[in-house]
Amino acid sequence: MINLEEFxxxxxxxxxxxxxLLENLETQKEELKEEPTYETSDYANIYEFxxxxxLQEESLRKRLTLIDKALKKxxxxxxxxxxxxxxxxxxxxxxxDPATPYCRSCASKFLV
Length: 112
Ligand SMILES: [Zn+2]
Hints:
Blueprint: H1 4-34, H2 43-76, H3 91-96, H4 104-110
Helix pairs in contact: 1-2
Zinc ion binds next to helix 4.
């Protein structure tokens, strides 16, 4: 029997970390807004930096959605059940990523 509580704690911890990272990105964005005195030669860098923040934000939000989905499954008593085939997800997969919604064989079908 898998110790589900452990995975739940992992998910909650990661969720908090992500929220902190998102807050940091938000602060960085504000700082960029407040400093309009950059040299022209820095402009490309600022642009790239903004892009980078945006991409980071996007991937963090995606991850957050996945984590929230997994946490919701605890309430529904569906955690560790594959979303596709309804079988139990292998413990080794949950160890690697407690937010994974699929078992090994389904994940391999989707990851083309
Ligand atoms: Zn499956």
